[in-house]
Amino acid sequence: MFTRTESFREFIRFYPTVSIIVGIHIALYLFTILPIFPNLWFIENFSGVNLYIINGEYWRLITPIFMHSGFSHVLFNSFSLILFGPGLERMLGGSRFLLVYLVSGLIANIATLFIEPLTYTHVGSSGAIFGLFGYYIAIIVFRKNILSKQNSQIIITLAVISLVMTFVEPNINITAHIFGLLGGFLLGALSKK
User: Per residue in 9-46, is it b (16+ CB within 10 Å) or e — as a string?
Assistant: First the structure.
């Protein structure tokens, strides 16, 4: 389930939503580093800045989900999405997968708005990616027969390691990780059949 054996072309065909999201990650990253683009404009207008959000720039609750602060940041988050997104996109379909991804990221960013100071600035898709972990955990808890025991153990192990790393690594939006995970879990719990 988490081993990728598809060719690049097959991956795009089988998992169009994950592919589009990763494409947006890469495009926005390139817009912030290549000198042919107004780099600073993208950073200034797409980053989550709590003060600007409360002053009416509500798009900043969504745009940070696709923005990243450096090569390793975009690489790690996109790689995580490529590993863990396809299984969920296959289970849910593209539209529902996108809904889970965006709503988890939105919950993470709203929590950041309410908990972090007004001067807090943030970017990154990790809140949305933690939402995918949360959704998987809801499947493990409420619909045990959907995932194999081995895949369930992989998800639980990686979710725990990722959560621990949240508190160890510097410059992490801890609020977004926790609330993204909770948001995804809640969405998964509400969609149980």
Answer: eebeeebebbbebbeebeebbebbeeeeeeeeebbeeb
